[in-house]
Specification:
Blueprint (H helix, E strand, L loop, with lengths): L2 H6 L1 H10 L20 H4 L7 H10 L3 H34 L2 H12 L3 H19 L1 H14 L7 H32 L4 H28 L2 E3 L3 H13 L7 E4 L10 E4 L6 E5 H6 L2 H16 L2 H35 L10 H38 L2 H11 L9 H7 L5 H14 L6 H4 L11
Parallel strand pairs: 2-4
Antiparallel strand pairs: 1-2, 3-4
Helix pairs in contact: 2-10, 2-14, 2-15, 4-18, 5-15, 6-7, 7-9, 9-10, 10-14, 11-13, 13-15, 13-16, 14-15, 15-18, 16-18
The structure holds zinc ion.
Length: 454
Protein backbone atom coordinates (compact mmCIF):
# COMPACT_ATOMS: atom_id res chain seq x y z
CA UNK A 1 0.00 0.00 0.00
CA UNK A 2 1.22 3.48 -0.80
CA UNK A 3 2.73 5.42 2.09
CA UNK A 4 0.67 8.53 1.54
CA UNK A 5 -2.48 6.54 1.74
CA UNK A 6 -1.25 4.96 4.94
CA UNK A 7 -1.29 8.40 6.49
CA UNK A 8 -4.95 8.63 5.70
CA UNK A 9 -5.85 5.43 7.48
CA UNK A 10 -4.90 7.39 10.57
CA UNK A 11 -2.66 6.05 13.27
CA UNK A 12 -3.73 2.54 12.61
CA UNK A 13 -1.99 2.20 9.32
CA UNK A 14 1.07 4.15 10.37
CA UNK A 15 1.47 1.84 13.30
CA UNK A 16 0.90 -1.25 11.28
CA UNK A 17 3.61 -0.23 8.86
CA UNK A 18 6.13 0.67 11.49
CA UNK A 19 5.59 -2.24 13.82
CA UNK A 20 5.28 -4.80 11.09
CA UNK A 21 8.28 -7.05 11.08
CA UNK A 22 8.28 -6.94 7.28
CA UNK A 23 10.22 -3.71 7.55
CA UNK A 24 13.21 -5.68 8.42
CA UNK A 25 16.98 -5.54 8.60
CA UNK A 26 19.02 -3.25 10.68
CA UNK A 27 20.71 -1.78 13.70
CA UNK A 28 20.89 1.54 15.52
CA UNK A 29 24.35 2.69 15.79
CA UNK A 30 24.87 6.35 15.16
CA UNK A 31 26.61 6.41 18.50
CA UNK A 32 28.69 3.32 17.97
CA UNK A 33 29.53 3.79 14.30
CA UNK A 34 33.08 4.98 13.85
CA UNK A 35 33.76 8.19 12.03
CA UNK A 36 35.23 7.74 8.62
CA UNK A 37 38.94 7.36 9.20
CA UNK A 38 40.09 6.61 5.68
CA UNK A 39 42.58 3.99 4.58
CA UNK A 40 45.21 5.20 7.06
CA UNK A 41 43.62 3.13 9.82
CA UNK A 42 44.77 -0.03 8.08
CA UNK A 43 48.43 0.73 8.60
CA UNK A 44 48.49 2.55 11.94
CA UNK A 45 47.20 -0.28 14.08
CA UNK A 46 48.93 -3.28 15.59
CA UNK A 47 45.72 -5.25 16.12
CA UNK A 48 45.53 -8.46 14.16
CA UNK A 49 42.15 -7.40 12.78
CA UNK A 50 41.02 -3.79 12.80
CA UNK A 51 37.21 -3.45 12.47
CA UNK A 52 37.40 0.16 11.30
CA UNK A 53 39.86 -0.68 8.55
CA UNK A 54 37.81 -3.74 7.58
CA UNK A 55 34.66 -1.56 7.40
CA UNK A 56 36.43 0.97 5.20
CA UNK A 57 37.77 -1.83 3.00
CA UNK A 58 34.22 -3.13 2.45
CA UNK A 59 32.90 0.34 1.67
CA UNK A 60 35.77 0.90 -0.76
CA UNK A 61 34.63 -2.09 -2.86
CA UNK A 62 31.57 -0.16 -4.06
CA UNK A 63 32.29 1.52 -7.42
CA UNK A 64 31.95 5.35 -7.25
CA UNK A 65 29.17 5.50 -9.87
CA UNK A 66 27.12 2.91 -8.00
CA UNK A 67 27.59 4.80 -4.74
CA UNK A 68 26.61 8.10 -6.37
CA UNK A 69 23.43 6.52 -7.73
CA UNK A 70 22.45 5.02 -4.38
CA UNK A 71 23.19 8.32 -2.57
CA UNK A 72 21.08 10.24 -5.09
CA UNK A 73 18.17 7.82 -4.72
CA UNK A 74 18.19 7.94 -0.94
CA UNK A 75 18.76 11.69 -0.64
CA UNK A 76 15.90 12.26 -3.08
CA UNK A 77 13.77 10.35 -0.58
CA UNK A 78 14.37 13.09 2.03
CA UNK A 79 12.51 15.49 -0.24
CA UNK A 80 9.67 13.05 -0.74
CA UNK A 81 9.13 13.08 3.01
CA UNK A 82 8.33 16.76 2.55
CA UNK A 83 6.25 16.40 -0.66
CA UNK A 84 4.30 13.48 0.83
CA UNK A 85 3.43 15.78 3.71
CA UNK A 86 2.69 18.94 1.73
CA UNK A 87 0.61 17.44 -1.11
CA UNK A 88 -2.11 15.84 1.04
CA UNK A 89 -1.94 18.76 3.50
CA UNK A 90 -2.86 21.16 0.67
CA UNK A 91 -5.66 18.85 -0.48
CA UNK A 92 -7.11 18.69 3.05
CA UNK A 93 -6.98 22.48 3.42
CA UNK A 94 -8.68 22.94 0.05
CA UNK A 95 -11.41 20.43 0.94
CA UNK A 96 -12.15 22.48 4.07
CA UNK A 97 -11.81 26.01 2.71
CA UNK A 98 -13.77 25.46 -0.53
CA UNK A 99 -16.68 23.84 1.30
CA UNK A 100 -16.18 20.59 -0.63
CA UNK A 101 -15.93 18.66 2.60
CA UNK A 102 -19.31 20.05 3.74
CA UNK A 103 -20.79 19.09 0.35
CA UNK A 104 -19.41 15.54 0.61
CA UNK A 105 -21.04 15.27 4.05
CA UNK A 106 -24.38 16.55 2.71
CA UNK A 107 -24.24 14.00 -0.10
CA UNK A 108 -23.49 11.16 2.35
CA UNK A 109 -26.45 12.25 4.49
CA UNK A 110 -28.86 12.35 1.54
CA UNK A 111 -28.15 8.73 0.56
CA UNK A 112 -29.55 7.13 3.72
CA UNK A 113 -30.58 7.98 7.25
CA UNK A 114 -28.21 5.51 8.93
CA UNK A 115 -25.31 7.32 10.59
CA UNK A 116 -22.70 4.56 10.22
CA UNK A 117 -23.43 4.51 6.48
CA UNK A 118 -22.95 8.31 6.36
CA UNK A 119 -19.51 7.84 7.87
CA UNK A 120 -18.55 5.08 5.48
CA UNK A 121 -19.77 6.97 2.39
CA UNK A 122 -18.01 10.15 3.46
CA UNK A 123 -14.76 8.22 4.12
CA UNK A 124 -14.89 6.52 0.71
CA UNK A 125 -15.39 9.88 -1.07
CA UNK A 126 -12.60 11.46 0.99
CA UNK A 127 -10.06 8.70 0.38
CA UNK A 128 -10.79 8.29 -3.33
CA UNK A 129 -10.71 12.04 -3.97
CA UNK A 130 -7.46 12.57 -2.05
CA UNK A 131 -5.86 9.60 -3.81
CA UNK A 132 -6.93 10.94 -7.22
CA UNK A 133 -5.56 14.45 -6.63
CA UNK A 134 -2.21 13.18 -5.32
CA UNK A 135 -2.03 10.42 -7.96
CA UNK A 136 0.55 12.21 -10.19
CA UNK A 137 2.94 12.48 -7.24
CA UNK A 138 2.32 8.81 -6.46
CA UNK A 139 3.07 7.79 -10.06
CA UNK A 140 6.32 9.72 -10.06
CA UNK A 141 7.45 8.54 -6.65
CA UNK A 142 6.26 4.95 -6.76
CA UNK A 143 6.61 4.11 -10.45
CA UNK A 144 8.70 6.46 -12.63
CA UNK A 145 11.42 7.11 -10.06
CA UNK A 146 11.65 3.45 -9.00
CA UNK A 147 12.16 2.46 -12.66
CA UNK A 148 14.67 5.26 -13.19
CA UNK A 149 16.85 3.77 -10.44
CA UNK A 150 16.36 0.20 -11.62
CA UNK A 151 14.49 -0.86 -8.48
CA UNK A 152 11.10 -1.67 -10.00
CA UNK A 153 10.16 -4.64 -12.16
CA UNK A 154 6.46 -4.00 -12.71
CA UNK A 155 4.90 -2.54 -15.85
CA UNK A 156 2.34 0.21 -15.37
CA UNK A 157 -0.79 -1.98 -15.55
CA UNK A 158 0.11 -4.36 -12.71
CA UNK A 159 1.51 -1.45 -10.69
CA UNK A 160 -1.77 0.41 -11.02
CA UNK A 161 -3.60 -2.80 -10.10
CA UNK A 162 -1.64 -2.97 -6.83
CA UNK A 163 -2.45 0.69 -6.11
CA UNK A 164 -6.16 0.05 -6.65
CA UNK A 165 -6.05 -2.99 -4.37
CA UNK A 166 -4.34 -0.83 -1.75
CA UNK A 167 -7.04 1.81 -2.15
CA UNK A 168 -9.77 -0.83 -1.74
CA UNK A 169 -8.13 -2.10 1.46
CA UNK A 170 -7.91 1.52 2.68
CA UNK A 171 -11.60 2.16 1.94
CA UNK A 172 -12.75 -1.01 3.72
CA UNK A 173 -10.43 -1.13 6.75
CA UNK A 174 -10.19 2.65 7.15
CA UNK A 175 -13.98 2.81 6.77
CA UNK A 176 -14.50 0.30 9.60
CA UNK A 177 -12.20 2.35 11.85
CA UNK A 178 -13.95 5.61 10.93
CA UNK A 179 -17.41 4.17 11.66
CA UNK A 180 -16.14 3.05 15.09
CA UNK A 181 -14.42 6.37 15.86
CA UNK A 182 -17.37 8.56 14.82
CA UNK A 183 -19.72 6.31 16.79
CA UNK A 184 -17.56 7.01 19.86
CA UNK A 185 -17.29 10.75 19.23
CA UNK A 186 -21.08 11.10 18.92
CA UNK A 187 -21.87 9.10 22.05
CA UNK A 188 -19.04 10.42 24.25
CA UNK A 189 -18.57 14.08 23.33
CA UNK A 190 -16.39 14.81 26.39
CA UNK A 191 -14.15 11.74 26.65
CA UNK A 192 -14.05 10.77 22.96
CA UNK A 193 -10.31 11.30 22.74
CA UNK A 194 -9.54 8.67 25.39
CA UNK A 195 -11.88 6.06 23.89
CA UNK A 196 -10.76 7.01 20.39
CA UNK A 197 -7.14 6.34 21.37
CA UNK A 198 -8.04 2.94 22.83
CA UNK A 199 -10.09 1.99 19.76
CA UNK A 200 -7.29 3.07 17.42
CA UNK A 201 -4.81 1.03 19.40
CA UNK A 202 -6.94 -2.11 19.29
CA UNK A 203 -7.51 -1.62 15.59
CA UNK A 204 -3.81 -1.10 14.99
CA UNK A 205 -2.82 -4.23 16.90
CA UNK A 206 -5.41 -6.20 14.94
CA UNK A 207 -4.19 -4.73 11.65
CA UNK A 208 -0.55 -5.52 12.45
CA UNK A 209 -1.45 -9.12 13.25
CA UNK A 210 -3.81 -9.83 10.35
CA UNK A 211 -1.78 -7.80 7.82
CA UNK A 212 0.86 -10.45 7.07
CA UNK A 213 -1.72 -13.26 7.03
CA UNK A 214 -4.67 -11.75 5.12
CA UNK A 215 -3.49 -8.55 3.42
CA UNK A 216 -0.01 -9.43 2.17
CA UNK A 217 -1.35 -12.34 0.01
CA UNK A 218 -3.48 -9.81 -1.92
CA UNK A 219 -0.24 -8.44 -3.36
CA UNK A 220 2.11 -11.44 -3.50
CA UNK A 221 2.17 -15.23 -3.73
CA UNK A 222 3.72 -17.30 -0.94
CA UNK A 223 5.08 -20.77 -1.69
CA UNK A 224 6.98 -23.35 0.36
CA UNK A 225 10.75 -23.33 -0.02
CA UNK A 226 11.65 -26.88 -1.13
CA UNK A 227 15.45 -26.65 -1.51
CA UNK A 228 16.86 -28.43 1.60
CA UNK A 229 20.28 -26.78 1.14
CA UNK A 230 18.70 -23.42 2.05
CA UNK A 231 15.65 -24.48 4.07
CA UNK A 232 17.34 -26.83 6.54
CA UNK A 233 19.97 -24.40 7.92
CA UNK A 234 17.24 -21.75 8.35
CA UNK A 235 14.92 -24.15 10.21
CA UNK A 236 17.84 -25.35 12.33
CA UNK A 237 18.68 -21.76 13.31
CA UNK A 238 14.97 -21.16 14.05
CA UNK A 239 14.79 -24.22 16.35
CA UNK A 240 18.02 -23.20 18.08
CA UNK A 241 16.40 -19.83 18.88
CA UNK A 242 13.08 -21.21 20.05
CA UNK A 243 10.97 -20.53 16.95
CA UNK A 244 8.69 -23.46 16.20
CA UNK A 245 8.28 -23.06 12.45
CA UNK A 246 7.96 -26.14 10.23
CA UNK A 247 8.34 -24.45 6.85
CA UNK A 248 10.05 -21.57 5.15
CA UNK A 249 7.97 -19.57 2.67
CA UNK A 250 9.10 -17.64 -0.38
CA UNK A 251 7.39 -14.40 -1.38
CA UNK A 252 7.45 -13.50 -5.11
CA UNK A 253 8.65 -9.95 -4.41
CA UNK A 254 10.43 -9.81 -7.78
CA UNK A 255 6.92 -9.19 -9.20
CA UNK A 256 7.28 -5.62 -7.88
CA UNK A 257 10.95 -4.87 -7.26
CA UNK A 258 14.56 -5.99 -7.07
CA UNK A 259 14.88 -5.33 -3.33
CA UNK A 260 15.95 -8.10 -0.99
CA UNK A 261 13.88 -8.66 2.15
CA UNK A 262 12.59 -11.23 4.61
CA UNK A 263 10.46 -11.46 7.75
CA UNK A 264 9.37 -13.72 10.58
CA UNK A 265 5.81 -13.30 11.77
CA UNK A 266 2.91 -14.97 13.51
CA UNK A 267 2.04 -16.15 17.03
CA UNK A 268 0.23 -18.95 18.86
CA UNK A 269 1.32 -21.63 16.43
CA UNK A 270 1.06 -19.58 13.23
CA UNK A 271 4.79 -18.76 13.17
CA UNK A 272 5.95 -18.22 9.65
CA UNK A 273 9.42 -17.57 8.24
CA UNK A 274 9.29 -15.74 4.92
CA UNK A 275 12.11 -14.71 2.63
CA UNK A 276 11.68 -13.05 -0.71
CA UNK A 277 12.77 -14.47 -4.05
CA UNK A 278 15.22 -11.58 -4.65
CA UNK A 279 17.09 -12.70 -1.55
CA UNK A 280 17.17 -16.27 -2.90
CA UNK A 281 18.39 -15.15 -6.32
CA UNK A 282 20.96 -12.59 -5.27
CA UNK A 283 22.53 -13.97 -2.08
CA UNK A 284 24.74 -16.89 -1.00
CA UNK A 285 23.50 -19.36 1.64
CA UNK A 286 25.70 -17.62 4.23
CA UNK A 287 24.13 -14.26 3.35
CA UNK A 288 20.63 -15.71 3.56
CA UNK A 289 21.47 -17.13 7.00
CA UNK A 290 22.74 -13.75 8.08
CA UNK A 291 19.49 -12.04 7.00
CA UNK A 292 17.33 -14.71 8.61
CA UNK A 293 19.30 -14.45 11.87
CA UNK A 294 18.39 -10.76 11.92
CA UNK A 295 14.70 -11.45 11.24
CA UNK A 296 14.59 -14.10 13.94
CA UNK A 297 16.02 -11.46 16.29
CA UNK A 298 12.95 -9.27 15.69
CA UNK A 299 10.74 -12.20 16.48
CA UNK A 300 12.57 -13.54 19.54
CA UNK A 301 12.90 -10.04 21.05
CA UNK A 302 9.15 -9.37 20.53
CA UNK A 303 9.77 -6.23 18.51
CA UNK A 304 6.24 -6.17 17.10
CA UNK A 305 4.78 -6.03 20.62
CA UNK A 306 7.32 -3.51 21.89
CA UNK A 307 6.58 -1.37 18.84
CA UNK A 308 2.92 -1.53 19.78
CA UNK A 309 3.80 -0.21 23.24
CA UNK A 310 5.80 2.62 21.73
CA UNK A 311 2.97 3.54 19.38
CA UNK A 312 0.40 3.37 22.14
CA UNK A 313 2.21 6.34 23.70
CA UNK A 314 2.24 8.17 20.37
CA UNK A 315 -1.46 7.41 19.83
CA UNK A 316 -2.59 8.56 23.29
CA UNK A 317 -0.54 11.77 23.10
CA UNK A 318 -1.81 12.20 19.54
CA UNK A 319 -5.46 12.06 20.58
CA UNK A 320 -4.86 14.53 23.42
CA UNK A 321 -3.30 16.88 20.87
CA UNK A 322 -6.15 16.28 18.39
CA UNK A 323 -8.69 17.35 20.98
CA UNK A 324 -6.91 20.63 21.81
CA UNK A 325 -5.90 21.53 18.27
CA UNK A 326 -9.31 20.73 16.77
CA UNK A 327 -11.16 22.83 19.39
CA UNK A 328 -8.93 25.74 18.50
CA UNK A 329 -9.43 25.24 14.75
CA UNK A 330 -13.24 25.02 15.14
CA UNK A 331 -13.26 28.31 17.04
CA UNK A 332 -11.19 30.03 14.35
CA UNK A 333 -12.60 28.58 11.12
CA UNK A 334 -15.57 26.35 11.97
CA UNK A 335 -18.18 28.72 10.60
CA UNK A 336 -16.25 29.58 7.48
CA UNK A 337 -15.77 25.86 6.66
CA UNK A 338 -19.42 24.98 7.59
CA UNK A 339 -17.99 22.43 10.03
CA UNK A 340 -19.91 22.11 13.30
CA UNK A 341 -17.45 20.42 15.62
CA UNK A 342 -15.79 17.14 16.32
CA UNK A 343 -18.79 14.89 15.53
CA UNK A 344 -19.25 16.47 12.09
CA UNK A 345 -18.04 14.25 9.24
CA UNK A 346 -16.99 17.33 7.30
CA UNK A 347 -14.26 17.89 9.93
CA UNK A 348 -12.42 14.75 8.84
CA UNK A 349 -9.92 16.62 6.57
CA UNK A 350 -9.02 18.76 9.60
CA UNK A 351 -8.26 15.66 11.68
CA UNK A 352 -6.33 14.15 8.77
CA UNK A 353 -4.30 17.36 8.49
CA UNK A 354 -3.56 17.44 12.23
CA UNK A 355 -2.49 13.78 12.23
CA UNK A 356 -0.36 14.20 9.12
CA UNK A 357 1.43 17.15 10.75
CA UNK A 358 1.89 15.26 14.00
CA UNK A 359 3.45 12.25 12.28
CA UNK A 360 5.60 14.45 10.06
CA UNK A 361 7.05 16.23 13.10
CA UNK A 362 7.58 12.91 14.88
CA UNK A 363 9.36 11.29 11.92
CA UNK A 364 12.87 11.51 13.47
CA UNK A 365 11.64 10.05 16.77
CA UNK A 366 9.87 7.19 14.99
CA UNK A 367 12.96 6.57 12.83
CA UNK A 368 15.13 6.45 15.93
CA UNK A 369 12.87 3.97 17.63
CA UNK A 370 12.91 1.73 14.58
CA UNK A 371 16.68 2.05 14.11
CA UNK A 372 17.35 0.95 17.69
CA UNK A 373 15.30 -2.22 17.19
CA UNK A 374 17.00 -2.89 13.88
CA UNK A 375 20.38 -2.59 15.55
CA UNK A 376 19.33 -5.06 18.22
CA UNK A 377 18.19 -7.48 15.53
CA UNK A 378 21.54 -7.12 13.76
CA UNK A 379 23.44 -8.02 16.91
CA UNK A 380 21.12 -10.98 17.48
CA UNK A 381 21.61 -12.05 13.86
CA UNK A 382 25.41 -11.90 14.15
CA UNK A 383 25.32 -14.12 17.22
CA UNK A 384 22.77 -16.51 15.70
CA UNK A 385 24.23 -16.86 12.18
CA UNK A 386 27.90 -16.19 12.99
CA UNK A 387 28.50 -14.86 9.49
CA UNK A 388 29.96 -11.34 9.83
CA UNK A 389 31.38 -11.18 6.31
CA UNK A 390 28.15 -12.43 4.77
CA UNK A 391 26.36 -9.75 6.81
CA UNK A 392 28.70 -7.11 5.37
CA UNK A 393 28.02 -8.38 1.83
CA UNK A 394 24.26 -8.13 2.39
CA UNK A 395 24.68 -4.61 3.78
CA UNK A 396 26.42 -3.66 0.56
CA UNK A 397 23.53 -5.13 -1.47
CA UNK A 398 21.06 -3.06 0.57
CA UNK A 399 22.93 -0.01 -0.70
CA UNK A 400 20.83 -0.42 -3.87
CA UNK A 401 18.31 1.75 -2.10
CA UNK A 402 19.97 3.02 1.07
CA UNK A 403 22.89 5.46 1.24
CA UNK A 404 25.89 3.59 2.65
CA UNK A 405 27.84 6.26 4.47
CA UNK A 406 25.72 9.22 5.69
CA UNK A 407 26.68 11.97 8.12
CA UNK A 408 25.64 11.28 11.75
CA UNK A 409 22.90 13.94 11.57
CA UNK A 410 21.46 12.43 8.38
CA UNK A 411 21.41 9.00 9.96
CA UNK A 412 19.77 10.40 13.08
CA UNK A 413 16.99 12.21 11.23
CA UNK A 414 16.22 10.03 8.24
CA UNK A 415 17.31 6.43 8.83
CA UNK A 416 14.78 3.89 10.09
CA UNK A 417 17.53 1.27 9.69
CA UNK A 418 21.20 1.79 10.48
CA UNK A 419 23.38 2.89 7.58
CA UNK A 420 25.57 0.42 5.71
CA UNK A 421 28.64 1.80 7.48
CA UNK A 422 27.12 1.29 10.94
CA UNK A 423 25.98 -2.24 10.12
CA UNK A 424 29.23 -3.35 8.51
CA UNK A 425 31.15 -1.92 11.45
CA UNK A 426 29.01 -3.91 13.91
CA UNK A 427 29.72 -7.06 11.87
CA UNK A 428 33.46 -6.38 11.74
CA UNK A 429 33.55 -5.63 15.46
CA UNK A 430 31.84 -8.98 16.09
CA UNK A 431 34.37 -10.66 13.83
CA UNK A 432 37.33 -9.02 15.64
CA UNK A 433 36.07 -10.31 18.98
CA UNK A 434 35.57 -13.86 17.71
CA UNK A 435 38.85 -14.31 15.88
CA UNK A 436 40.30 -17.76 16.39
CA UNK A 437 37.17 -19.02 18.15
CA UNK A 438 36.53 -22.54 16.85
CA UNK A 439 38.21 -21.23 13.75
CA UNK A 440 35.28 -18.80 13.37
CA UNK A 441 36.86 -15.44 12.72
CA UNK A 442 40.09 -16.39 11.04
CA UNK A 443 38.57 -18.81 8.57
CA UNK A 444 36.27 -16.06 7.35
CA UNK A 445 37.70 -14.32 4.32
CA UNK A 446 37.98 -10.55 4.20
CA UNK A 447 36.56 -8.32 1.50
CA UNK A 448 39.37 -9.38 -0.84
CA UNK A 449 37.91 -12.87 -1.29
CA UNK A 450 34.20 -12.16 -1.47
CA UNK A 451 31.64 -14.86 -1.86
CA UNK A 452 29.65 -14.58 -5.00
CA UNK A 453 25.95 -15.35 -5.14
CA UNK A 454 24.82 -18.94 -5.29
ZN1 LIG B 1 14.93 -5.63 10.73
Amino acid sequence: MQRRMMFLVFFAAALAVLTSATFAKGQAATTTAPAQTGGAATTTTNQPFDPVAATNAYLATVPPDKKAKSDAYFEGGYWFLLWDFLAPAIVFLLLLSTGWSARMRDLAERITRFKPVHTFVYWAQFLVLTSLVTFPLGVYEGYIREHKYGLATQTFGPWLGDQLKGLAVGVVLGGVLMVALYGIVRRLPRTWWIWGAITSLIFTAFFALIGPVFIAPLFNKYTRLEDPAIRDPILSMARANGISAQDVFVQDASRQSTRISAFVTGFLGTERIVLNDNLLKRCSVAEIESVMGHEMGHYVMHHAYKGLMFFSIIIVLGFAYLRRASEWAFRCWGEKWRVHGVGDLAALPLFALLILTYLFVLTPAINNYSRVEEYEADIFGLNAARQPDAEAEVDLKLADYRKLDPSPLEEYLFYDHPSGRARIYAAMRWKAEHLGERGEGDKIPGPGSRQTGR
